[in-house]
Write a structure and sequence with these properties.
Layout (H helix, E strand, L loop, with lengths): L6 E5 L3 H14 L4 E6 L2 H11 L3 E5 L7 H9 L6 E6 L15 E4 L4 H15 L4 H15 L10 E5 L2 E5 L4 E7 L2 E6 L2 E5 L3 H4 L8 E5 L2 E4 L3 E6 L5 E5 L5 E4 L11
Parallel strand pairs: 1-2, 1-3, 3-4, 4-5
Antiparallel strand pairs: 6-7, 8-9, 8-12, 9-10, 11-12, 13-14, 14-15
Length: about 260
Amino acid sequence: MSKTTVTALIADDEEGPREQLRAALKRLWPELEIVAASIHGVDAWDDFLQHEPDVCFLDIRMPGLTGIEVARRMAATATPPQVVFVTAFGDHALSAFDAGAVDYVMKPVDDARLAQAIERVQGRLQRPEPAAAGADLQALLKQLLPAAAPRPKMIQASLGREVKMIAPEDVIYFESDNRYTRVVYEGGEALIRTALKELLTQLDAEQFWQVHRSVLVNSRCVASAIRIDENSMVLTLKGRQEKLPVSRQFQGLFKGQ
């Protein structure tokens, strides 16, 4: 790795275990810089996009997005992190983690077991091909994810005194706009109070692709992806003039065949 400081994100919806893990990591890996301590899965995903940590310690059971769902999203980015699951339950296929793509520790965290996980992570961080780790992680997590949960059928957007009912399939893209989210759909646009990161838990991930920290686009409405230079890419949309930015983490979605 080119940088000398290894950064980490920890995520647990319970403060006690979260702080216990933080204290244990400080004891066992004092050089590690914890850049975010997320309080649920949705924040963990957003914090990952903001800080791009090298290592993520994820509680498996969190509201919004589970640790496994967050890890799968991370594995699809340009720079997937090393992942260690933290769980109080033995009901997942934990033996699958022996494949080496990820690791896990049980709560309450035991120093000896955590030290073993840290040693494995440090070893994987020395490997020169992080993309391979991401591919391994995606394949493993695909087996562990449960069937997709039911999604809301309509988006309710306020337009003056009117509440507009917008079918998700009619939405072209969502874009963060300060405290609101802008909904651009066939026939107009509207603002809703639901944050973009919350919408992630309500939409079909196969249809709506996050292409930037502030943009979710309906993949059916994308006409093309245009690379501007080594780091910049934009999307053009079918029948529309505006272009949407694609951040570096999501450019791997558009590889050509």
